[in-house]
Amino acid sequence: MGNEPKAQPAAPRAALTVEEAARSLGIGKVMLFKLLKEGQLRRVKIGRRTVIPAGDVEALVERLASLPKGE
Questions:
Q1: Looking at residue 7, what is its pLDDT?
Q2: Prediction pTM value
Q3: Strand order of the sheet with strand 15-17?
Q4: Rounded to an integer, what distance in angstroms lies between the CA atom of residue 24 and that of residue 32?
Q5: Is 70 exceeded by the pLDDT of residue 71?
Q6: Of 49, 55, 57, which is closest to residue 17 (Cα–Cα)?
Q7: Residue 57: how many CB atoms within 10 A of its CB?
Q8: 62: three-class secondary structure by DSSP
Q9: Which residues lie closer than 8 Å to 53 by C-beta, 6 or more apart?
Q10: What whole-number distance in Å separates Cα of residue 64 and Cα of residue 25?
């Protein structure tokens, strides 16, 4: 009972899949691809996989939150 190893906390993710990024923003994949096309988010290719830097998702939310209301 008291000898179980403690679970290590999950390391923060450096990048999110397209699906994860869309879900974390509360949008669909079509809107996410629009943001990528507009340059509001960056995509990184790792092999055949496309990922979105997690910091870019957070930065997008911060930029949008700092816009005056109505924009």
A1: 74
A2: 0.76
A3: 15-17, 49-53, 44-46
A4: 11
A5: no
A6: 49
A7: 20
A8: helix
A9: 14, 15, 42, 44
A10: 12
* CB atoms inside a 10 Å sphere around CB 35: 19
Q: In this structure, which amino acid lies at residue 23?
A: R
Q: Which residue's entry shows tokens 């509360």?
A: 26
Interval 16-53: pLDDT, tens: 999 999 999 999 999 999 999 999 999 999 999 999 99
CA distance linking residue 16 with residue 34, whole number of Å: 17
Quote the CA–CA distance of 58 and 40 in Å, as a whole number: 11
Q: How many alpha carbons lie under 13 Å from residue 48 in its C-beta half-sphere?
A: 0
Amino acid at 14: A
